[in-house]
Amino acid sequence: MKILSKKFLAVLLAGMMLLPLAACAETEDDPENTKASTDSNTEVDTSNQDYVCDLPDDLDFKNVTVTLLYVKRDGRSDEMPSEKLGLGTISDAVYERNVAVENQLNVKLSFVEEVDDATASSSLKTMVQAGDKSVELSTIGTYFALGNAIEGCHLDMSRLMYMDTSKHYWSQEYNEIATFTSDNMQFLATSPAALSLFRLTYLTIYNRELFAERNLPDLYKTVEEGKWTLDCQYGLVADEYVDKDGDGSVSEGDFYGFITGDIISVDAYTVASGIRFIVRDENGDWVSNMTMSENLLNMAEKVSDLYTAQGSYVYRGTSYDDIGKYSIIEKFAAEGGLMATTQFLSIEKRIDALADISYGIVPMPKLSVGQEKYHTYVQDQLSAFGISAAVGDQERQELLGALMESIAYNSYLIVRPAYYDSTLSLRFMQDPQSGEILDMMFETISFDRAYLNFSVDIKGTMRDKLPSSNPALSSQLRAWEKGIQNALAKEQRSLDKLTKS
User: Fold this and answer.
1) pLDDT for 422
2) What pTM, to 2 d.p., does this model score?
3) Which of 144, 158, 164, 440 keeps 20 to 30 A from 366, CA to CA?
4) At residue 312, what are phi and psi to the nearest 5 degrees?
5) How far apart are CA 277 and CA 144, in angstroms?
6) Residue 308: in which H helix or E strand, if any?
7) Residue 5, SS3?
8) Nearest 5 degrees, angle CA 469-CA 375-CA 476?
């Protein structure tokens, strides 16, 4: 399996208007007359093989049933199951995708629901250890799924027939963090089947009318010129405070320049600043990266200044700032601030409240103008797809590889445009510039392995320190470096056992 450096999502999203829809093979009529309109007879575009599915047309798996485990969590529960048509745009697209996959391979999909990632992760591990094949595929939040992978719960996708994760209907950026060694062992992957790949992306939303009233600069132009930085954001919001409710005290009811939170909202700053705690060395192995310490300390000071400015309102605690919590976007929608940090999921869930506001979107700010490009972080709870290591039969592994490939490809054809057209583009974006920003953001999707289920709680420390008046991260650096090295060594020992088994 080849790991590519091309930017999957920019072409995948922006190119949807340029590339004809293609299909691996034509779907057959559903005997129960529930076949969806998957547009599967559209001519295949062969100009770019990275988008052409290579599954053979004559695959037939004799109507066997395959069960997939998924987590019923906000932003992810509707990614895989759908009972019937007529339940909404996304549900219909997911249903159509599932029918297309079933018809293409002659299989039946079955779904098992878990209440949260921790339970799903534990259940999967127990089943694999017991050799239980009742669940063969899983989609679990990456933060937990990576631990399962290192513990041997998943098959190595790079060795499976019919799976080709170098195709651009798989996320290449995700491939990078899910490839564990220089030998390209890959146990997890994600694709447009995971709507969380879009929904859990961080951005900055701003009120264009209020910007115009204050003669503030056009943020679209600021981004285009590469000047959208933490210093720029601080300069725009630091003094923007009004005692809106007139109670004489600083409170939630007042007007602020910036609205954010101190839990998940903190997570994006490190990646957005181009900082990576773990990188690959010249051999392709993961190693600790402390060459970024100066940038890290600089970023911490700037974020601290931003969070503690008079013009910033910070929602504190997971009751307000977590996936499925919408206090930030609701305050912004009530015109309680100039701008806010949010995710597309929050905009999607509160789109009606935003209907009367003229707003724009920009990425998270860069550390400085010298930073080469913007980096767009996706929360580590996005769905990771894996195949159970309990499946030892080679023919069954081939079936599951083909199924994963078909799910990814048909999601690219059906689910992605449904979400991108009806939700992101048509409902979220109020002007052409926002659409251009959207494409640029997905072009710069980035991750950091250090945030994913590591015994060194870097993320927790950042959440504690960055929103404070004294971030004081310098004392953490040596401990982090040692902890990362130990964690990577432990991971490698586990991977060595998997290689020998």
Assistant:
1) 66
2) 0.86
3) 144
4) -115, 135
5) 19
6) helix 293-308
7) coil
8) 40
Exposed, middle or buried, 499 (CB in 10 Å: 0-12/13-18/19+)? exposed
Q: Which residue has the tokens 């004294």?
A: 470
Please say whether the beta carbons of 369 and 229 come within 8 A: yes
Nearest to 386 by CA among 127, 91, 24, 106: 127
What number of CA atoms fall less than 13 Å from residue 284's CA on the CB side? 11
Q: What tokens appear for 204 in the block? A: 């900055």
pLDDT (average), residues 181-194: 88
Number of separate helices (H) and strands (E) present in the chain? 18, 14
Backbone dihedral angles phi then psi of residue 224, each to the nearest 5 degrees: -60, -35
Tell me the average pLDDT of the chain. 86
Q: Are 169 and 11 in contact (CB under 8 A)?
A: no
Q: Can you tell me the distance from the alpha carbon of 496 to that of 501, in angstroms, rounded to the nearest whole number?
A: 9
Distances 12 to 169, 192, 447, 451 between C-alpha atoms, Å = 7, 9, 18, 26
Q: Give pairs for 334-337: CB < 8 Å, separation 24+.
A: 335/207, 335/210, 335/255, 336/244, 336/253, 336/254, 336/255, 336/256, 336/259, 337/207, 337/240, 337/255, 337/256, 337/257, 337/258, 337/259, 337/313
- Gap between the Cα atoms of 338 and 240, Å rounded: 8
Nearest to 267 by CA among 225, 214, 322, 349: 322
Q: What burial class does residue 74 get, using C-beta atoms within 10 Å of its C-beta: 0-12 exposed, 13-18 middle, 19+ buried? A: middle
Closest by CA position to 40, among listed 13, 21, 12: 21
| Lowest mean per-residue pLDDT among 27-31, 286-290, 397-401 | 27-31
9, 60, 36: which is closest to 403 by C-alpha?
Answer: 60
All residues at 6 or more sequence positions from 164 whose CB lies less than 8 Å from its CB, including other chains: 1, 54, 405
| Residue type at position 420 | Y
pLDDT value at residue 483: 92
Residues found in the chain: 501
Give the burial class of 302: count Cβ atoms within 10 A of its Cβ; 0-12 exposed, 13-18 middle, 19 or more buried: buried
The Cα 211–Cα 335 span in angstroms is 12
Higher pLDDT, 20 or 449: 449
Which two tokens mark 349?
Answer: 């869930």
Q: Torsion angle, CA of 222/228/233/236, rounded to 10 degrees?
A: -10
Write out the two tokens for 321: 């700032």
**CA 493 – CA 495 distance, rounded (Å):** 5
